[in-house]
């Protein structure tokens, strides 16, 4: 079977299973079911959401993900998304009353946590909230270069920037410090999870917060994030742009 037919068969199988099974499909029947020869196909299934919910990078694909996230291909992929986002932004007919908005996620969208994930196997280890919190408070995450450019261009075009993150309110100071150190300035609002948001799925929490922004009279023209849960739900943007991320999945 040639690679093209194999890829098509994989995607069809993953899509079918995702509709009839609720558990992460990449654990069926085992992580070793994904051959290292086809990790690029696995990444495609992840990015198109055909893989559904998944818990960690398959063991045979850890080296592939490490090479992708630290190499030129990830940088180029992010640049393509950034360029398409900017092209759309330039085509927007602005309301012009200071209510034209763009919403950004933070992790793997404005800031890159690749240095952190280098230390924990690029997504092979199960997420550890304590160690990630330590990383957040170090305020050491670098800017994702393509979106720093996009961010500044959007400001020049007159968009109001809202930062909507799954990080918690107690991480506000560290997050603001990290953003400033990485070159981000003059956002309209940084929205973090408060006590009433604890335990909510990301797609529900972020939809609620976008709706609050819209209820204040803002028009959300664009939205950028690395997870589908950053972009889907309700009160969605006119156009949404997904950054690649094969390291982890957030429902």
From TrEMBL:
Residues 1-22 form the signal peptide. Keywords: Glycoprotein, Signal, Storage protein. InterPro entries: Acid_phosphat_B-like, Acid_phosphatase_pln, APS1/VSP, HAD-like_sf, HAD_sf. CDD domains: HAD_VSP. Pfam families: Acid_phosphat_B. One of its GO terms (molecular function) is acid phosphatase activity. Gene3D superfamilies: HAD superfamily/HAD-like (3.40.50.1000). May function as somatic storage protein during early seedling development. Belongs to the APS1/VSP family. This is Acid phosphatase. The lineage of its organism: Eukaryota, Viridiplantae, Streptophyta, Embryophyta, Tracheophyta.
């Amino acid at each position: 079977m040639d690679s093209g037919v194999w890829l098509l068969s994989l995607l069809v199988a993953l899509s079918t299973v995702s509709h009839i099974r609720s558990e992460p499909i990449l654990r069926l029947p085992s992580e070793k079911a994904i051959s290292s020869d086809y990790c690029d196909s696995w990444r495609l299934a992840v990015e198109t959401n055909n893989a559904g919910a998944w818990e960690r990078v398959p063991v045979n694909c850890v080296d592939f993900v490490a090479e992708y996230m630290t190499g030129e291909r990830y940088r180029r992929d992010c640049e393509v998304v950034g360029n398409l986002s900017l092209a759309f932004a330039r085509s927007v007919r602005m309301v012009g009353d200071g209510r034209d908005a763009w919403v950004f996620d933070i992790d793997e969208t404005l800031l890159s946590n690749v240095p952190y994930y280098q230390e924990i196997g690029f997504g092979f280890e199960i997420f550890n909230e304590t160690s990630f919190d330590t990383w957040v408070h170090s305020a050491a995450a670098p800017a994702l270069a393509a979106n720093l450019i996009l961010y500044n261009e959007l400001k020049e075009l007159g968009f109001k920037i809202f930062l909507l993150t799954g990080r918690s309110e107690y991480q506000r100071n560290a997050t603001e410090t990290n953003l400033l150190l990485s070159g981000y300035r003059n956002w309209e609002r940084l929205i973090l999870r408060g006590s009433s948001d604890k335990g909510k799925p990301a797609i529900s929490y972020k939809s609620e917060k976008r709706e609050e922004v819209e209820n204040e009279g803002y028009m959300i023209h664009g939205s950028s994030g690395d997870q589908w849960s950053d972009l889907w739900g309700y009160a969605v943007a006119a156009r949404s742009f997904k950054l690649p991320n094969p390291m982890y999945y957030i429902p």
